[in-house]
């Protein structure tokens, strides 16, 4: 591995560009002393960088959201024979689509909040009948975004339209999901094993953009203080979902847990945040895996 030529690809054009720049830098800083690494911050057209990327033995994809996470870049790399870390184009596309993920999750008997899908052409008054059946509060969110952008918790009918319009700024496909009160938990998958569960206690009601990325805006407890049997079930389901979507190398499954100890899968992230303070490396640490070991394990799995 020591003579491997590695390019860490970050930046991009999605709404999560800034997060990706942090992920890229954290990975670069961690690996530069022991491996032959280059940090590539791209913007605009990824095709302009293909010749450069082809020079590498492996591209560590440190992108979040948009074409970097939805399979487009993965597909381009596959066509160009470029080896890369993380899930392939097909799995990435499925995981980025929260609706597709939930459909697969249900088939695998993984509980997920009840939901409805709408798009920009739907008539909101007609939709209201279905929404009322779901019951308030609800969550309205774009079906294929990340970092809690465009997401609202809606407590009454008269706030729906505003929430729809916000979500529509980010996607044509909108998800309306039953709100699950309770705790926020996440499970990292590395290789074919799960990491200890992390509980997130955000300062805001919602685990929003600021709570995700600003220091001190969330408290993290790992391993989460939950019943062992429950923890094992959640980990088993996370791995089942990871495998069910044919994900590779690593991923992270987000859950909500209510007061009756019922858990609900929200989504799977194929390119979770990877700064040294992000959730997955935290979970690694609780298992005595350093950030460096964690990254090297991903690299070994990819080559
Ligand atoms: N159905 C829900 N019930 C309760 N909280 C939710 C629900 N959906 C989303 N949230 C909150 O919003 C956050 C972001 O939602 P998520 O579906 O994970 O999308 P993303 O992380 O891709 O933006 C979650 O971590 C959670 O705090
Ligand atoms: Mg999430």
Give the arrangement of secondary structure elements:
Layout: E1 5-11, H1 17-31, E2 36-42, H2 50-54, E3 58-61, H3 66-69, H4 72-79, H5 89-96, H6 98-107, E4 115-119, H7 124-134, E5 138-142, E6 152-154, H8 160-168, E7 173-178, E8 183-190, E9 193-194, E10 198-202, H9 209-213, E11 218-221, H10 228-244, E12 250-257, E13 263-269, H11 279-286, H12 291-302
Parallel strand pairs: 1-2, 1-3
Antiparallel strand pairs: 4-7, 5-6, 5-7, 8-9, 8-10, 8-12, 10-11, 12-13
This protein binds adenosine-5'-diphosphate and magnesium ion.
Write the element-wise H/E pattern from the N-terminal end onward: EHEHEHHHHEHEEHEEEEHEHEEHH
Note the beta-strand portion: 15-25%
Instruction: Tell me the CATH architecture of the largest domain.
Output: 2-Layer Sandwich
The CATH first-level class of the largest domain comes to Alpha Beta
* Helical segment count: 12
Q: What global shape is seen?
A: globular
Largest sheet: 6 strands, antiparallel
In CATH terms, the superfamily of the largest domain is: ATP-grasp fold, B domain
Distance between the termini: 9 Å
CATH topology of the largest domain: D-amino Acid Aminotransferase, Chain A, domain 1
Based on secondary structure, the structural category is alpha+beta
Helical coverage, percent range? 25-40%
Count of spatially separate domains: 3
Overall pLDDT metric? 95
Record field, number of beta strands: 13
Q: Report the radius of gyration as a whole number of Å.
A: 19 Å
Uncertain segments: none
What are the distinct ligands in this entry? adenosine-5'-diphosphate, magnesium ion
